[in-house]
Amino acid sequence: MHHRRKFIKQSLAGSALLLTGSVDATGLRLAPQEKPLILSTWNHGIPANETAIQTLRAGGSILDAVEQGVKTTELDMDNLTVGLQGLPDREGITTLDASIMKGNGECGSVAFLRQIKHPISVARKVMEETPHVMLAGEGARQFAIAQGFPLEKEELSPKAKAAYEEWKQKSQYKPIINIENHDTIGMIGIDAEGKMAGSCTTSGLAYKMHGRVGDSPIIGAGLFVDDEVGAATATGLGETIIRICGSFLIVELMRQGRSPQEACEEAVRRLVAKSKNAKDIQAGFLAINKDGEMGAFAVQPGFNFAKGSLQSNKLIDSPSHF
Ligand code: ASP
Q1: 237 lies in a domain?
Q2: Which of the residues 1, 59, 161, 176 could staple to 156 if both were Cys, CB 3.0 to 4.6 A apart?
Q3: DSSP assignment of 179-248
Q4: What CATH number has the domain bearing residue 297?
């Protein structure tokens, strides 16, 4: 990695690449300097970014944009790891985790939430309407109801039901996220004035233990935003991301002068070093700094993300450790 970074630095020196935002060998734009800029994990980031950009165009704030953007994914019936249509836990119950954060440090999250279609909006309500940061389980559900969120019937989507029935044949408990089974949406954005916000929402690890909570609702793990520095979000095996405080780590590395790309690479390096089975797991990070530069890095190949601006919205393959 070090070599690749050195190569990029050398090839950029004295060239116009930084200014034009040209694509490097991995397809990752190095320094687009485009604001507003929205980054979202995985290919479902494309429709999510579209909603986010439309929200900005309609005069919404960057916070509105990252909330509305991921709500699109929370409703996507093809998505098996975000929203109520996501794969259930071992008991056959789908439980949701979500977090939202503004660059001024305000944040809110919900964990282990049932029967609510838009956990991201409940997380925003926690941030705006309570003195707390996080509500979990039954308390989060009661709060959502009190805030006027409709309670959905507790039943699996046809796709999730079929997958769960198949899993039950063997009921093998493999709490692993590899390159096939992931999809949390993490979205980070910066507006034209440099204000930042982020959101992260998921049904978590498929067939998890009842009560398991991943990185996505943990501020600093699945999401962290600081207007003074930048923003980061994560996807993949939550336990490995929580252990290194992944998103907080990336923002702090950027505070110390690393580029978003260097910071994402260092976080993955640390995650790999702390994981016994790094070869079998997937985790990936996205970052932007306050200048609108971006970074992406994953443990395994296969991680991609959507980069949206007022001009374009496209899928980019992330470089990876292995
Ligand atoms: N990060 C999520 C979790 O561990 C899962 C994912 O990204 O698919 O709950």
Answers
A1: yes
A2: 161
A3: SSS---EEEEEE-TTS-EEEEEEE--STTPPTT---STTSBTTTEEEETTTEEEEEEE-HHHHHHTTHHH
A4: 3.60.20.30
Give nearest CA residue, ligand 1 atom 9. Answer: 204
Q: Is the pLDDT of residue 5 over 50?
A: no
The answer to whether position 14 is within a domain reads no
Q: Which residue lies with its CA nearest to atom 8 of ligand 1?
A: 182
Q: How confident is the model at residue 20 (pLDDT cuts 50, 70, 90)?
A: very low
Separation of CA 143 and ligand 1 centre (Å) = 24
What pTM was computed for the model?
A: 0.90
CA of 282 to the centre of ligand 1 (A): 10
Mean residue pLDDT across the chain? 89
CB atoms near residue 58 (< 10 Å): 10
CA 249 – CA 307 distance, rounded (Å): 22
Its domain, for residue 295, covers 34-169+182-317
184 is annotated as an active-site residue: yes
Contact 259, 289 (CB under 8 A): yes
Which of 73, 184, 201, 233 is an active site residue?
Answer: 184
Q: Which tens digit of pLDDT belongs to each residue from 115-146?
A: 999 999 999 999 999 999 999 999 999 999 99
The answer, yes or no, to whether the previous bond of 36 is cis (omega within 30 of 0) is: yes
Task: Give the pLDDT confidence of 238-251 residue by residue, as tens digits.
Answer: 999 999 999 999 99
75's tokens? 């409703």
Smallest CA-to-CA distance from 238 within 200, 273, 266, 265 is with 200
Report the distance separating Cα 314 and Cα 317, nearest Å: 10
Q: Residue 13 pLDDT > 50, yes or no?
A: no
Domains in the chain, number: 1
Tell whether ligand 1 has an atom less than 6 A from the beta carbon of residue 81.
Answer: yes
Task: For residue 113, report the distance from its CA to the centre of ligand 1, in Å.
Answer: 15
